[in-house]
From TrEMBL:
<dbReference type="GO" id="GO:0005886">
    <property type="term" value="C:plasma membrane"/>
</dbReference>
<dbReference type="InterPro" id="IPR004670">
    <property type="entry name" value="NhaA"/>
</dbReference>
<keyword id="KW-0915">Sodium</keyword>
<protein>
    <recommendedName>
        <fullName>Na(+)/H(+) antiporter NhaA</fullName>
    </recommendedName>
</protein>
<comment type="function">
    <text>Na(+)/H(+) antiporter that extrudes sodium in exchange for external protons.</text>
</comment>
<dbReference type="GO" id="GO:0015385">
    <property type="term" value="F:sodium:proton antiporter activity"/>
</dbReference>
<feature type="transmembrane region" description="Helical">
    <location>
        <begin position="351"/>
        <end position="372"/>
    </location>
</feature>
<keyword id="KW-1003">Cell membrane</keyword>
<feature type="transmembrane region" description="Helical">
    <location>
        <begin position="69"/>
        <end position="90"/>
    </location>
</feature>
<keyword id="KW-0739">Sodium transport</keyword>
<feature type="transmembrane region" description="Helical">
    <location>
        <begin position="110"/>
        <end position="129"/>
    </location>
</feature>
<feature type="transmembrane region" description="Helical">
    <location>
        <begin position="32"/>
        <end position="49"/>
    </location>
</feature>
<feature type="transmembrane region" description="Helical">
    <location>
        <begin position="171"/>
        <end position="190"/>
    </location>
</feature>
<dbReference type="InterPro" id="IPR023171">
    <property type="entry name" value="Na/H_antiporter_dom_sf"/>
</dbReference>
<feature type="transmembrane region" description="Helical">
    <location>
        <begin position="387"/>
        <end position="408"/>
    </location>
</feature>
<comment type="similarity">
    <text>Belongs to the NhaA Na(+)/H(+) (TC 2.A.33) antiporter family.</text>
</comment>
<keyword id="KW-0406">Ion transport</keyword>
Length: 434
């Protein structure tokens, strides 16, 4: 009597060839962006602690822009509200492409990074709240829940050059879902006041933008004014303006893999989501995020005593512990639970230590963590300064720990690959002449 055997579901399996190529291109751009982000953050931190710190704070506080629609903002606010809208626009495009045209359109494959991202949000938030519950600082619970995609991918590019591509794709997907969760948290929990007429008015340029892109229109002189109008009205409504970036991204059509190129009833239009992502990702990675980092990382440390005082604050402890401990525990536990309840197995050649390395790397919160810190406590406040120091310390610790794990695993994968290549070369050699 024969036995039926179902094929085991594989966690972190290698994606399709086309998707792997696209992810490789994204990783290259984000790696460059991560390097620029690091340089910008260090520059801001050094300037803010130099004898010329007054000039740095003057740059941050310089106001410009029209007073209408509450757009008379200082430089730091323009970076957080304006430039980061570009970052979230690109993140929204990436998310939509992943779930409509990418490998994550399959529910089974999407379950792993989605669960990992949610676990990486819940556990850090619980750790933070356990240290601040009952105080006014509990409102910062979302600060350690974010993963900085640029920083994380930059570290992965350096420390994990020999890791399988499936692990890189997993980290990218996790970070993209993490960004979506972050923008939902910002919209729901960090909207202090809501002006309904402005929010309803934002639907008009957003709808016009959606109609045009659905018809395949690429003309910047039509689309950019509509996007700016949507952003300005969302900003005036009290909802954080970065939400506009995600809404605009979700309005852009995505062509499924293998589908005919079309973006309108008449057809003949290429994938607009890919076109916009190609145009705006360099702007996001090379300009928007580094400028924000430069203007946000410049916290006055006050020497070793000042750092020690800041890191002794329950707020800072909660943020750092959430990033260094909560993120790895949450991501790892969620991934293991998916495997446990779906009876899945890691793809051939992978090990749980690989997942641990990526889980630790997910603790590199920077861009969105700093943004939520400013929303929760305000820029320039004592709590805000402590949050910045904790985010920097926690992210640096996560980067070092993850680099150690990933380098060790990278060496192991390199030895395996070298052995396989030597074996293939030996088999390819012609035998002795008879």
């Amino acid at each position: 009597m024969g036995t039926s055997q179902t094929k085991a579901y594989r966690l972190l399996s290698r994606g399709s060839k086309g998707e792997a190529g696209r992810i490789a291109a994204v990783l290259r751009e984000e790696t460059v962006g991560g390097a620029l982000l690091l340089v910008a953050a260090v520059a801001g931190l050094v300037w803010a602690n130099s004898p010329w710190s007054d000039a740095y704070h003057a740059v941050r506080a310089f106001e410009f822009g029209p007073a209408t629609l509450h757009l008379r903002l200082n430089t730091a606010a323009w970076a957080a509200d304006g430039l980061l809208a570009i970052f979230f626009f690109v993140a929204g495009l990436e998310l939509k492409r992943e779930f409509i045209a990418g490998d994550l359109r399959r529910p089974r494959q999407a379950a792993v990074p989605v669960a990992a991202a949610l676990g990486g949000v819940i556990v850090p938030a619980v750790i933070y709240l356990s240290l601040t519950m009952g105080t006014s600082t509990a409102k910062g619970w979302a600060i350690p829940t974010a993963t900085d995609i640029a920083f994380a991918l930059a570290v992965l590019a350096v420390a994990g050059r020999h890791l399988p591509s499936a692990l890189r794709a997993f980290l990218l997907a996790l970070a993209v879902v993490d960004d979506l969760v972050a923008i939902v948290i910002i919209a729901v929990f960090y909207t202090t006041h809501l002006t309904a007429p402005a929010l309803l008015a934002a639907l008009l340029p957003l709808a016009a933008f959606a109609v045009l892109v659905r018809r395949g229109v690429r003309a910047w002189w039509l689309l950019i004014p509509l996007a700016v109008a949507t952003w300005a009205l969302v900003h005036a409504s009290g909802v954080h303006a970065t939400v506009a970036g995600v809404l605009l991204a979700f309005a852009v059509p995505v062509r499924r893999a293998g589908a005919p190129a079309s973006g309108s009833p008449t057809g003949g239009v290429t994938d607009l989501a890919g076109h916009f992502e190609h145009r705006f990702r360099p702007v996001s990675a090379s300009v928007a995020v580094p400028v924000f980092a430069f203007l946000s990382a410049g916290v006055t440390l006050g020497g070793l005593d000042g750092v020690a005082t800041a890191l002794g604050d329950p707020v800072a402890i909660g943020v750092a512990a959430g990033l260094v401990i909560g993120k790895p525990v949450g991501v790892m536990a969620a991934t293991w639970l998916v495997a446990r309840f779906t009876r899945a197995e890691l793809d051939a050649g992978l090990a749980w230590i690989d997942v641990l390395g990526l889980s630790v790397l997910a603790g590199m919160g920077f861009t969105v963590s700093l943004l939520i810190g400013e929303l929760a406590f305000g820029a320039g406040t004592a709590a805000g300064r402590h949050v910045t120091i904790a985010v920097l310390a926690g992210s640096l610790t996560a980067a070092v720990l993850a680099s150690v794990i990933l380098r060790l695993r990278g060496r192991a994968y390199r030895r395996v690959r070298q052995a396989e290549e030597a074996e293939e070369a030996e088999e390819a050699e012609p035998g002795p002449a008879g």
